[in-house]
Amino acid sequence: MAGPVQSIERAAAILRLLASGPRRLGLGEVAASLGLAKGTTHGILRTLQHIDFVEQDPATGKYQLGAALLHLGTSYLDVNELRSRSINWSDALAARSGEAVRLGAPLEGRVLIVHHVFRPDDTLQTLDVGALLPPHASSLGKVLLAFGSLPVEPVVEAGLEAYTRHTLTAPERLTRALAEVREVGWAAEVQEMISGEAGIAAPIRGHGGLVVGAVGVSGTVERICDSQGVPLPGLVTQVRHAARAISRDLGATRW
């Protein structure tokens, strides 16, 4: 039986090192930590950077995990970091909009609610943190599907379950809807998961511009939409501003 490939072991060690700490590391730091020559370390880092597993800060020259690793696991952005960077902006969005705010992240083909801010009134509300939402029937999910954080094919192959008569159950309708989300930069659900309720969501981007989550407001159709069932422009603007602010805190340079 063939033995382990040394270059792959070294590449894996570099990725583990970059994933183990909260800060970027320079070439010398990586080499010293792993006991490798700088030339060898630089060659491996350059290869990992070429395939987007590693990113280099142009200002400091230091390295961090790359966006492509998001599709291989959760090391690129822990959901706890996503939540912690979003708390203040989510609270502010709830206060300004007067609506409930939820933060979603991809998990095994569905949308995991990692943070939930109650609507700022005295009505009885249920905490949704930890809930899993169907991506095709929720505004948060449509964002993750449209921008590639959740793969579309497995969702379609599993069957687009109808939650209400408004749910998008035809693959071609979902495809058109996701194309529109990419074009306008935000998503909506209007009575697609729960009759009488609506939601608006926008993408949250991390380093490299990859969408790593979504933030949105939800409430009754009468509060979220106009008399024609169209999401209120003011709410759309507020949600998109919050998403951009969170993205900036996560290191995104475009959104």
Automatic annotation (TrEMBL):
Q: Which residues form the IclR-ED domain?
A: 68-252
InterPro entries per record: GAF-like_dom_sf, HTH_MetabolicPath_Reg, Tscrpt_reg_IclR_C, Tscrpt_reg_IclR_N, WH-like_DNA-bd_sf, WH_DNA-bd_sf
Record-given protein name? IclR family transcriptional regulator
Sequence ranges assigned to domain HTH iclR-type in this UniProt record = 5-67
Record's keyword annotation contains DNA-binding: yes
Coiled-coil intervals: none
Q: Which UniProt keywords apply?
A: DNA-binding, Transcription, Transcription regulation
Q: Which SMART domains match?
A: HTH_ICLR
**PROSITE patterns documented for this protein:** HTH_ICLR, ICLR_ED
What organism is recorded for this protein?
A: Streptomyces kronopolitis
